[in-house]
What does this fold into?
Amino acid sequence: MSHQVANRRRIKHCMTISAAAATMLFASTSMANKEEETQEAGRALLDETNEPNPKLKSFTITFNPITALTLKLGPNLEYLPTRHHAIVLNPFIWGLPPIFGALGMEAGYHHYSGNAGADGFYIGPSIIVYTGCILGYCGNSIEFALDIGGQHIFDNGFTIGGGLRLFTTSGRKPASAENKRTVVPWPLFTIGYSM
It folds into this structure.
């Protein structure tokens, strides 16, 4: 009788040890799998951080219909050498020669909050240089501007934006009058394409 009790105890003891070993093996396998998943997620995160954003569109061309109504015609060209930082160029003709007209170039900078290119909220200064005749007054002029606004790039590249420009005007008058600079607000509205 005591021999059977001892055997039962041994069997129970072996079963307990086997169950504990199986539990430990399962737990260690599960922990190894979790650790491997964590390492893979970390590698993927590092790869995404080190690689450039595949959706980045570094060149944008837009037109401003509001400005076109005043006969200032020309494309807005934006190039982003790095994310968030855009170099802005706008060659333009203003007016219709020979009655009146001016040729000019605007150069500036926009800082964008978005990651897709010329996308998100932006702010930046510009310098505008032009020469010619407008409303009977001829000469050369240098103006300054500050743009504040937002622009969105859709997945297909279509780009639309809006904002406000504050720019100086030299207030050119006949030679006998004073030249005074004033700050003028101007609405911005852009439609175009980014690539």
Observations:
- The two ends are 89 Å apart (CA to CA).
- Residues 1-51 form one domain.
- The longest helix spans residues 2-50.
